[in-house]
UniProtKB/TrEMBL annotation:
PANTHER family: STAGE V SPORULATION PROTEIN R (PTHR30029:SF2). InterPro entries: Spore_V_R, SpoVR-like_C, SpoVR_N, Ycgb-like. NCBIfam families: PRK11767.1. Pfam families: SpoVR, SpoVR_C. This is SpoVR family protein.
């Protein structure tokens, strides 16, 4: 296709037009932006199929569960009554990357969502370090096919009610069913023996016989033995453990093999979505920046008409709309808008920096290589670190950000940070912290369990900033944990700053 000749005319599309537009978009994405993507598989689906994809968390294959049907009816009723539209596309982090396009889209909209999903999201999935560490794009579809057929066989063999009972409990724990950090590799038997030998040699070198002659308090031997036994028990179980589903799967004494496999299926899927929860601003910002840059390049080359460009810009504006805090449509910060504008700001800093930019970003201000800067950011950051690294004072002023201090014992808010030198840094830190899962999600860990004793599973909730768990949800979740564990479960809330106990709760005192 020659520059200056239109790729398409009119709003109707067909597969030949899609192919021509895809080739033109790919040429800009690869040769101009330097994107590196998985092979793409474009599929056209109807609105009913899009609703079905909504219900199964956007995956093409999924096992059966009543919650998916509930989600389907919820979105269907909103769509049928005109209170909500449907997404223009859905993209799946797989190899090949699967992109679902709505058949109701116009040709101009198909061009926009192809650039957005098939190249923007696709590049981010393939190159961001979180997705590289935690997901296997080439294996997920095969694993989902296995999960669907395995759970169907379990339903035939053990009954719908029994399988649903396990899935209900596992779904309740999905938020606590992921590894947030890389687990160290298991030591070989040779390295374990070497470690034991080194510890014994150290004890012999540091042993002082004089301590044996000192009087010891009454019951010292018993207390010491109990503490040593508890320490050895925790070490053998690798406690504390943040992944509740993993710990229950490996250590529950009541689960049958098929139930353990279902827990593993649920936590594998939870781990697959874990990077997406940490990169929504970056992922959507990257895709929006890519589609905006590519479609504008096509227009500048004379390959799409003014009418098509106006339609693209209208849809783009809808995507990046950020309602004000007093607007009825306000639902928080729009990740599309924040991510897209931060990436545009990086282009500005790299090409037309101010003196302020040179002070705040000496490494990238005026380097002229905005493509390389963005590719590096997309590969090596998540939302929290991206905002902490790249949010500029100019963006703070543009978005009119400031920090409010909300103290429970004070009747009014206090404006804690404004637009000055120290305020910019505090605002950036506060916004970055709001995207840090470690700061916003409950920190609940398995602390101890005596498998040879009462077998009570002891959990600890580290309470940050005084934010307690909702009592009804907490008690309901404890019941689910007990159903999987088979014995009593208790949880203790501990203040993160002082270490004092704020509450204790046990399934012994929970009815139902």
């Amino acid at each position: 296709m020659l520059k200056g000749s239109l790729l398409f005319t009119g709003s109707d599309w067909n597969f030949e037009k899609l192919r021509v537009v895809y080739d033109a978009i790919e040429e800009i994405a690869v040769n101009d932006l330097g994107l590196d993507t998985y092979p793409n598989q474009l599929e056209i689906i109807s609105s009913e199929q899009m609703l079905d994809a909504y219900s199964s968390v956007g995956m093409p294959l999924m096992y059966r569960h009543w919650s998916f049907g509930k989600h389907f009816l919820y979105h269907y009723n909103l769509y049928r009554t005109g209170r909500r539209g449907l997404a223009y596309e859905i993209v799946i982090n797989s190899n090949p990357c699967i992109v679902y396009l709505m058949e109701e889209n116009t040709m101009a909209l198909q061009a926009l969502v192809t650039a957005h999903a098939a190249f923007g999201h696709n590049h981010f999935f393939k190159n961001n370090y979180l997705f590289q560490q935690w997901t296997d794009a080439s294996a997920i579809l095969g694993y989902l096919d296995f999960a669907k057929s395995y759970i169907a066989r379990c339903e035939e063999r053990h009954g719908l009610a029994a399988v649903e009972h396990v899935l209900d409990a596992a779904h309740a724990l999905m938020e606590q069913g992921v590894f947030r950090y890389r687990r160290p590799p298991r030591l070989s038997s040779e390295k374990e023996r070497e470690g034991i030998r080194e510890r014994l040699e150290y004890e012999e070198r540091t042993y002082d016989d004089l301590w044996r002659t000192l009087p010891r308090p009454k019951g010292w031997e018993q207390t010491s033995a109990v503490k040593q036994a508890a320490a050895e028990r925790k070490k053998s179980l690798k406690l504390p453990e943040e992944n509740l589903l993993y710990f229950i799967e490996k250590n529950s004494l009541v689960l049958e093999p098929w139930q353990r496999e279902i827990l593993r299926i649920v936590r594998v899927i939870a781990q697959y979505f874990y990077p997406q929860r940490q990169t929504q601003v970056m992922n959507e910002g990257c895709a929006t920046f890519v589609h905006y840059t590519i479609t504008n390049t096509l227009f500048d080359r004379g390959q799409i008409s003014e009418g098509a460009m106006l339609e693209i810009l209208q849809n783009h504006s809808n995507v990046v709309l950020q309602p004000g805090f007093d607007d009825p449509r306000f639902g928080g910060i729009n990740p599309y808008a924040l991510g897209f504008q931060m990436m545009q700001d990086i282009v500005r800093i790299a090409t037309e920096p101010t003196e302020e930019d040179r002070d705040w970003f000496p490494d990238i201000a005026g380097n002229g290589d905005w493509r390389g800067t963005l590719l590096d950011a997309w590969a090596n950051h998540r939302d929290e670190s991206f905002i902490r690294q790249y949010l500029s004072p100019a963006m703070v002023r543009k978005w009119r950000f400031f920090v409010l201090d909300d103290s429970a014992h004070e009747p009014h808010y206090e404006v804690a940070s404004i637009h000055n030198e120290r305020g910019y840094e505090k605002i950036r830190t506060a916004l970055a912290n709001s995207y840090d899962i470690g700061m916003t999600r409950p920190d609940i860990q398995v602390m101890d369990v005596d498998l040879l004793g009462d077998r009570r599973l002891r959990l600890q909730h580290t309470v940050k900033n005084g934010v307690l768990l909702d009592e009804a949800t907490r008690d309901s979740t404890l019941r689910h944990i007990r159903n999987l564990w088979g014995y009593e479960v208790s949880i203790r809330g501990v203040d993160a700053d002082t270490g004092s106990t704020l509450y204790e709760r046990s399934t012994t005192h929970i009815s139902g």
